[in-house]
Amino acid sequence: MKISLAGFMGTGKTSVGRELSLKLGYDFVDSDLLIENREGMPISLIFKNKGEDYFRQIESEAVEEISGRDNIVIATGGGVIKNNRNLQNLRRRGLIFCLTAGPEVILRRVMLEGGKRPLLDVKEPLEEIKKLLSEREEFYRKSDAFIQTDFITPAEAADNIISSLGLDSERVAVGLGERSYEIIIGSGLLSKAGMRLREFRPSKVFIVSNETIFPIFGKTILESLNKEGISPEIFIMPDGEEHKKLEWAERIYGRLLESGFDRGSMIIALGGGVVGDLAGFVAATYMRGIKYIQVPTTLLSQVDSSVGGKTGVNHPLGKNMIGAFHQPSLVIMDTDTLTSLPVREFRAGMAEVIKYGIMYDSELFNYIDEKREDIFSLGASLIPVIKRSCEIKADVVSQDERESGLRAILNFGHTVGHAIETATGYTRYLHGEAVAIGMRYASDLAVKLGIFDEDSAVKVKELIRSCGLPADIPSDIGISDVINAMSVDKKAIAGNIRFVLPEKIGSVRIVDGIERRVIKEVMEA
Known about the structure:
Layout: E1 2-7, H1 13-24, E2 27-30, H2 31-39, H3 43-50, H4 52-67, E3 72-75, H5 84-91, E4 94-100, H6 103-113, H7 125-140, E5 145-148, H8 154-164, E6 170-174, E7 181-186, H9 193-198, E8 205-210, H10 214-227, E9 233-237, H11 246-258, E10 266-271, H12 273-285, E11 291-296, H13 299-305, E12 310-315, E13 318-325, E14 330-334, H14 343-359, H15 362-370, H16 372-376, H17 382-399, H18 414-423, H19 431-448, H20 454-466, H21 479-487, E15 498-504, E16 507-512, H22 516-524
Parallel strand pairs: 1-3, 1-4, 2-3, 4-5, 7-14, 8-9, 8-10, 10-11, 11-14
Antiparallel strand pairs: 6-7, 12-13, 15-16
Helix pairs in contact: 1-8, 2-4, 3-4, 4-5, 6-7, 11-12, 13-14, 13-17, 14-15, 14-17, 14-19, 18-19, 18-21, 19-20, 19-22
C-alpha cells in the first residue's frame, strides 16, 4: 500500500510521514528532500537559480518515480497536488491524506523551522499563506481524507491515519509479485471498508452476498462505502453450498452486463466460502478478469477459502471442478462477524484450523488443544489462531500459487471430505465437517501404510471430536459411493486417487496410487 501526505507547508507532512512509516514498517520518502539531495542545493536556491518551472518539472519526475513503489509513505511538497499528473501517480494503488492547519499555526511552524520558504519571501507572509490556501483549496479537495494537525502531535496524526485504514489490526502479506495483497484481521473493519476500497479507484462496485449475511452486515458496509461516495450495486443469492454452481454465476454475469460494469469495476464478496468462491470465479472470468475483494464472514472462509485465489463452482459430479486461480486485491477479516455465526458453522471453521496444525505447525495443533475453550468463546486466543492459519496458507501459496507442487498439501483431509460432500449432494455436511472426517481417515490410512504412528492418529481424532466435529462416515453412506467420488475429484491424476497423508503432527506428504482395496479397508474399519 502507498500512503501519500499532501497539504500546505508547515502542516507536518514530513514529521507525520516519519512517524507513520515507523509505525507501519514502510519506507519513507520526502519528495522535497529527495530533490534537494539530487540537485545538491535547498529548494529555495533551486527556485532562485533555476526558476519554479524547472522545480515543478523535476518534482513531477520524482513523484512519478516514487509512486511506483509499494509499502511506502510519501511526504509531498506543498504544491505537488496542483499538478494533475502528480495526482494520478499518487492515486495509483494508494491513498492521499491531506494534512491541514490554520494560517497562524502554519506561519508559526515555518518561522520556528528557521529556514526560508520561497513562496513566503514576501512582506506579509500570513496574508500570502491565506491567499495560497484559498487558491489550492480545490486541489486539496481531491485528497481521499483530511487530518487536521493544529492541536495534535505527529504521532497522533499518524495513529489517526492508521486507524482509518484498519492498519492497527493484525496483517498478513501474501507475496505474489504484482498480484501480492494484504490480509487485515481485527474488530470493526467492516466500517473501514470504504476507505480501503478507495485505494483501488474502481469505476463501479458490485457486492455479492447471501440472504443470511447481508441483512446482518449489509448496512455497516454500505454506510462505509456511501461515506466515501461509493454507491454499489447489490446481488443477493440464497445461502448454501448447493447454490455454488454455474446457474448463479450466469445470473451475476447478467446483472453486471445489464448495469454496464467494465474492466475497471470491482466485486466485493461479503459472506462465507460459497459467496467468496462464486464471486471470485465471476471476477476471474468477467471480461477476462476484474478486481475483487474478499470480506469473509465465517471462520472457515477467513482461515481458508478467502486466501490463495482459488475460485470456482461445483458440478453434480464433483466439487470445485470448474474454476480459476484469481487472487483478490485485499482480504478484510472483521472478527465481529463471527459473533453471529452459529456454533455448528464455527466448529466447521475450526476443522481447517486443525488442518493447518496437523500439516504444517505442531505448535498450532497444541495451541488449539490448550486454548480450545477460549477460542470457542471468541476470546483473545481467536485472532492469533486466525492470523497463524492465514500465515501458513500465505506461505504455501506464495511458494506455489497454482498447486503444481507444495500447495497440494493444503488438500489434507479434502480427498475424502470432497467425496463425502459429492456423495451427499452438498446438503448433509458443512465443508469443514466433511474435511474433519477426511482428516481422520487420512490419518488412519497413514497408520495403515506405516508412515504415521497410531498415538498421533488418536490425538488427531480426539482433537477433532473435542471441537464438536464429526470423525466417522455414517453407516447410511455407501463407502463405494465415496471412493467413486474420489476418482473424479480434481486432485485425482489419470484416475489415480491422491492423498495428503501425515508423517507426524506438523508434517505431511503426498501419496499417489494407493489401492482402492486398502482405502476401503480403512474406511470400513
